[in-house]
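[Q] Does anyone have a clean structure-token version of this?
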Amino acid sequence: MEPLNVGIVGLGTVGGAAARILLESADHVARRAGRPVHLRRAVVRDLSKPRAVELPEGVLGTDPAAAVDDPEIDLVVQLIGGTDTARELMLASLAAGKDVVTANKALLAEHGRELFDRARELGRCIAFEAAVAGGIPVIRAVGEAMTANRLTGIEAILNGTSNFILTKMLAERRGYEDVLAEAQRLGYAEADPAMDVDGTDAAQKLILLTELAMGTRVPLDAFPRQGIDHLLLDDLLLAHELGYVVKLLAVTKLANGQLEMHVQPTLVRIDRPLAQCDDAYNMIALDGDAVGRTWYAGAGAGGMATASAVVADVVDVAAGRAKPTFDRLDLWGDIPPLPVQPAEEIERRFYLRFTVEDRPHVFADIADILGRQGISLASIIQHESPEETDDDGPPTVPLVVMTHRTTEGQLRKADEELQNLSSVKPPTVRMPVAD
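[A] Here you go.
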């Protein structure tokens, strides 16, 4: 059969690893694809930068048009970040008659509908398994394996950087900044880790999964999103004392005909599978009305793990599987999108940690405010305070409250009153609890 000729745009950590697989495992890839797969072009910004892969003569260049406009190239593998240039490059590739493989979840979260519609209009396909959860084949699970089910829930750890940091903080009793620096040295975190640690990366991936699973495209600002960059080791230790671990949890579930969505540091009971997903691994739980809960876990970060998914998409394009799969992802047609539940109405249990002066009536004041907002208390922990302090004021101690189920709106109203208590010192920490 005729070979599939490939152009890769972006030869960073993932692109370099994908090129390496295509070159070093060419025979294996060809057997899986049913025909040879040739790397014809690789496009980079800086030719002088050292590469982790040795490319054949004439493959490397700096002009994306060398891949997009080359009539011999069948498939463009787009592995650059950002959205504006990436969108233009993808539209140009589709218009030039190329299929596209990408790992850019930010691009698809923002412009996916436009790009998917354009690809179908031109008879092309976009494969994006690597855009969510690294090497875990969750896009295939949603688009193919779970099609007998109506999906009712997603509960997932989708950011390997955050999961690595939280795991190390708790296991080694280290602070956030210290572990973040280690994650950067190991290549799990970028020099600017903001999108990983502020919850944006996980939220973008959740948007893609939610659209595929439930037919609703949700804007990034339409649901609560918090990261781990404000967390203290004290809260991880207190949660563990209560029988929980803290995970950056991404959740979508059907609730009274609406989509409940949030990405937040969340207490997960220590005996649940999600609690045992450590280091840079990801885990996704999908709930189907027929099969129940299914689990998918594996490496969610790192060049080779993500490149594994990229090359798998390349093989599917070469074998003719990608186009039918891509067309089937447009499952929802004219079905109206589900409304997103307002944040104030989301109902869960919560972990609350106050720093309070150790003197009479402080807890009574807090309990009174919570009670007047209809917030019922499930348990309370207060450690013994020191008898003496270095200053003239009363000692302060952490006071941890676990609530029964309540709404985000009730807690926000309580927060407004709690801020007026002189006995409560900032910051107050609030995290949801996964039931």
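[Q] Thanks! Anything notable?
[A] The mean pLDDT is 92.
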